[in-house]
Specification:
Blueprint (H helix, E strand, L loop, with lengths): L4 E2 L10 H10 L11 H21 L6 E4 L2 H8 L5 E2 L7 E5 L4 H4 L9 E4 L9 H8 L5 E4 L13 H10 L3 E5 L11 H4 L3 E5 L10 E5 L3 E2 L10 H4 L7 H17 L2 H18 L6 E2 L10 E5 L5 H10 L2 E2 L1 E2 L2 E3 L2 E3 L2 H5 L4 H4 L3 E4 L6 H20 L9
Parallel strand pairs: 1-13, 4-5, 4-6, 6-7, 7-8
Antiparallel strand pairs: 2-9, 3-10, 8-9, 11-12, 12-17, 14-17, 15-16
Helix pairs in contact: 1-9, 2-9, 5-6, 10-14
Amino acid sequence: MRERVYLDWNATTPLRPEARSAMADAFDVEGNPSSVHSEGRAARKLVEDARSAVAAALGADQRNVVFTSGGTEANALALTPGLRRGRAEPVQRLIVSAIEHPSVLAGGRFAADAIKIAPVLPSGVIDLNALAELLADQPPALVSVMMANNETGAIQPVSQVAERVHAAGGVLHVDAVQAFSRIPINIRSLGADILTVSAHKIGGPKGVGAMIVGDTLSGLEALIRGGGQEQSRRAGTENVPGIAGFGAAVTAAMASMDAADVTRMKALQARLEKGLRSHPGTVIFSDSVPRLPNTTLMSAPGLKAETAVIGFDLEGIAVSSGSACSSGKVQPSHVLQAMNVDPVLLQGAIRLSLGWDTTEAGIDRCLEAWIKLASVLRKAPAIGLEQF
């Protein structure tokens, strides 16, 4: 049997050896990190070493890193009414871009009538003029704009967003889950007031994430109460093995994120997209704006995403759909809907995302599968599973 090719890194990444080793060692540490005896201090050191690694990677102070159960919880914690920068007025409403992750679109602890949606341009980038109009209203708002979109890979103009948000007296939250370790991120240079990240997107374990707050932010209320852990920002005994694995993954990811790695990833992305475009009518979404070097969202007339994903799978290629399944019903991508994508293309969106062990041979295997799929598509539009 031919070895499978994994091209769904945006969904989750393989566990890095460094993270696996750190977790294995942490399982032998018996103490509770809140205990003051030697065993407790040993566990606390693992947590604080990981906190230091996350802080250094994102240009933050160690004391401003709050560990959570993942990116979803970190986002829910960040979306809190009453946040404020310095002496500014506390925020009382929420503005989110139309392409945010569902955990942000859910609005956190804001009431539904206090939430507004900022549109995006057809390129998949937030409409700064529309955002400015929303910010002109009162009271001040918390604005949530992701660093890079999880489907298209489109990198958002976060620094420009920050300027507008702060000029209006607001607070900026940036979901950096997909961008972390793929492009440089510094909370201070971006102008973000809150950043959220997740371990399993960078080679760490599932079930661990972090929220990073800016130096001047105040008004954050714990989402999970009942203990003084994480500086009273998140109650509950810390997941020591998971956090240790997160820290090790961060250290490994930062060590390998150099110009050569980015160049290699971009070359693989270009090779992939050139091959995908060999089928007439193939569209690569957000290809007119800066994107993550590992992310390609494509479609073609007549393609059915849900069956094409299975077709790739049968050929030994793991990819994902631009659609989300809920209770067995496939829903169109809200990201592509926000970009006003033609319904003919909307139904066929396929995401291919690369990682550190993706090779040219793996890309070529994917393109072999695409040639087979595309040949069927030419003969019979709106392909179904029975044709694979």
